[in-house]
């Protein structure tokens, strides 16, 4: 296996269902710098976090957890079912997976050259006159994306817990108080994953590694049990891959409805862009972060297909699994296909196991984004958020973790006020992450890729241009698709307000820049010397 995708052998043993050729063939467009010299930008920040906190395998596991296809595709299943069903869900995931992988390559070569959270990359890539503002928007959009994505993951898990309770005993959950119950469970989940980050951070390395095993074995168990206990007729493979029916979406254009169905996969796969925030806690971030992002996307893509195809072979009629306010479609798929409450309960528990890993990882990345921005005085009370207790064994920014938990608590309250408003903030998570990823990639293109000279890991030859342009086009396309209502006719409650929230975010970021950023925000501290030149290790 090529060096770029070398992963721990213990992990590789559990990925035997993914042929080595899948990794090696995909990664042939990747090249480790072969001109004899590597030039990696070095930064002058005091090293407060533990540089050996996360290993290569842990980064892959964390990325896999953030993109967990089991949790992500399960909790957003209604979007794909509304907009075509099997063809949209499976083929949409395949298309989105490949495009997301290209985005991870574009972002990976930037992080390889500038191993820091993305606002630092933008500052170093942008022309001098716009360094601060490019850095500001990149950092704040990434931070808001982290916060809202973290909230999205934990709230989706809470909805799944409520679905599990409701399908077991429908009388236990009163529909009138459904949102209240969901918010209560959400608060409980946020508190648990937050406390793990605060008081059990020494176990996060192990948690990230176990994450991969859990998700892979969950996929295997779910697929096998569904096929074994399915009590009806099996769908044909042709049906499971090509059946398309978008009548429930209300859209007259099948092609447009198919693309809207990409929302399901984009909510799932965009988490890879949250990984650069961990650059301060990896021994070789210039290599480990790019490798982790790219490899995690590939594993998520292949594992997601293995998870989805058997479900499409036993899926009930769409009309019987939509529009149940208490129970998520994936839970109804399990109960209607197996007719066994015990088996269905076990299958949902396997999905909920992913929630722990994804929730812990999202709090980790979000708090590190807060920490990184605070070092450059991007937030009021920055000294507090950037504080790391030097006497503590766990070198974590505890106040950044608490702030991240507090933001989730506040956003969770929106669900009590308006479901549409809350969903708008969740949709804005993808818009923020896409736009924050897009800015440094566009800056690379503007520099005619010269800014990446000496990057230890980058795309080979002229393919870099193609990958960069496709990445930008895909990110812009995704932002458009995420802003479209998944179903028409649109009502005040079903309207997609994600773009409106995103615009409010932009306005808020702009006001904060002029009232705070221009007086306090600083560009990342870079070594005044020439970037350290290292002997290349070759391909």
Automatic annotation (TrEMBL):
InterPro entries: AA-permease/SLC12A_dom
Mode of membrane association: Multi-pass membrane protein
Protein name, UniProt field: LAFE_0G04368g1_1
Gene Ontology molecular function: any one: transmembrane transporter activity
Transmembrane segments: 59-82, 89-108, 147-166, 178-200, 212-229, 296-315, 327-357, 399-418, 424-446, 466-485, 497-516
Domain Amino acid permease/ SLC12A: 71-524
Compartments in which it is found: Membrane
Pfam families membership: AA_permease
GO cellular component annotations of the record: membrane
Keyword field: Membrane, Transmembrane, Transmembrane helix, Transport
Natural source organism: Lachancea fermentati
């Amino acid at each position: 296996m090529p060096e770029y995708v070398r992963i721990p052998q213990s992990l590789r043993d559990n990925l035997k269902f993914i042929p080595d050729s899948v990794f090696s063939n995909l990664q042939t467009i990747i090249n480790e710098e072969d001109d004899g010299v590597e030039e990696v930008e070095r930064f002058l920040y005091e090293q407060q976090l533990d540089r050996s906190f996360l290993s290569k395998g842990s980064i892959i596991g964390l990325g896999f957890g953030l993109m967990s296809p089991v949790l992500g595709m399960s909790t957003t299943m209604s979007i794909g079912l509304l907009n075509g069903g099997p063809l949209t869900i499976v083929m949409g995931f395949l298309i989105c997976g490949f495009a997301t992988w290209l985005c991870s390559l574009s972002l990976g070569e930037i992080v390889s050259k500038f191993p820091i959270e993305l606002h630092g990359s933008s500052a170093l890539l942008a022309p001098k006159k716009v360094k601060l503002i490019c850095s500001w928007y990149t950092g704040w959009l990434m931070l808001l994306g982290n916060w809202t994505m973290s909230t999205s993951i934990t709230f989706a898990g809470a909805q799944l817990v409520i679905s599990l309770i409701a399908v077991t005993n429908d009388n236990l959950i009163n529909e009138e108080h459904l949102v209240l119950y969901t918010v209560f469970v959400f608060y409980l989940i946020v508190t648990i994953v937050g406390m793990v980050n605060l008081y059990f951070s020494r176990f996060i390395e192990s948690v990230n590694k176990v994450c991969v095993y859990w998700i892979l074995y969950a996929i295997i168990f779910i697929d096998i049990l569904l096929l074994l206990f399915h009590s009806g007729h099996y769908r044909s493979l042709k049906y499971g891959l090509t059946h398309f029916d978008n009548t429930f979406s209300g859209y007259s254009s099948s092609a447009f409805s198919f693309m809207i169905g990409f929302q399901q996969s984009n909510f799932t796969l965009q988490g890879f862009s949250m990984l650069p925030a961990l650059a301060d806690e990896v021994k070789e971030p210039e290599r480990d972060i790019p490798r982790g992002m790219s490899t995690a996307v590939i594993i998520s893509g292949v594992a997601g297909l293995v998870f989805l195809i058997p479900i499409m072979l036993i899926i009930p009629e769409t009309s019987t699994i939509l529009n149940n306010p208490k129970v998520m479609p994936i839970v109804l798929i399990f109960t209607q296909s197996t007719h066994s409450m015990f088996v269905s309960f076990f299958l949902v528990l396997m999905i909920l196991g992913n929630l722990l890993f994804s929730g812990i990882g999202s709090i980790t990345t979000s708090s590190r984004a807060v920490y990184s921005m605070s070092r450059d005085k991007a937030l009021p009370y920055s000294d507090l958020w950037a504080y790391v207790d030097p006497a503590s064994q766990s070198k974590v920014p505890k106040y950044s973790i608490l702030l991240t938990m507090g933001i989730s608590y506040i956003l969770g309250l929106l669900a009590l006020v308006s479901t549409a408003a809350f969903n708008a903030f969740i949709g804005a998570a993808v818009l923020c992450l896409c736009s924050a990823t897009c800015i440094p990639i566009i800056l690379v293109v503007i520099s005619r890729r010269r800014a990446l000279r000496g990057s230890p890991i980058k795309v080979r030859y002229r393919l870099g241009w193609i990958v960069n342009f496709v990445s930008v086009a895909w990110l812009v396309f995704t932002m458009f698709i995420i802003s479209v209502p998944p179903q028409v006719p649109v009502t005040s409650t079903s309207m997609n307000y994600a773009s409106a929230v995103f615009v409010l975010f932009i306005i808020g970021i702009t006001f904060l820049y002029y009232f705070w950023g221009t007086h306090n925000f600083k560009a990342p501290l870079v070594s005044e010397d020439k970037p350290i030149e290292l002997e290349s290790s070759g391909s």
